[in-house]
Amino acid sequence: MQTQEDRPIRVVALRNLNAMCMHVSGVCHRYWIDRVSPHRCYVCYSNPDEYGIDDPVTAVFPVYPSAWPQDRGGNPRVVLDVLRVENDPEGFCEFSDLLDAPEMFCDPETNTWSTREYWKAQTADKA
After folding, report:
1. 6 found inside a domain
2. Which of 5, 22, 61, 124 would staple 41 via disulfide (CB 3.0–4.6 Å)?
3. DSSP structure class, residue 101
């Protein structure tokens, strides 16, 4: 008998993924985009040891080019479905905070990223 699955998979722009990494990173637990190839995005996670030495775990995500003309070449779409994890075969759990990160939106005037809840609160304060 084969398993069955039907789930929505989240797809974000590379810029949004970078904002998500910054949002879920803290003093110790840090996420960052290491590199992007035409078909893969490598996101690192690190919780440095007591000496401040990083031993990052890297998750590999699939990437495809954006259909929007203004995004071509610089803002591909990243499918938030881990293909593999490098440096720790069971390290996919380390990326749950990133995969569960809220939607991030950018204010074009100030170039600051915030969550939907933040923008709703800002709008409510002005009303």
Report:
1. no
2. 61
3. P
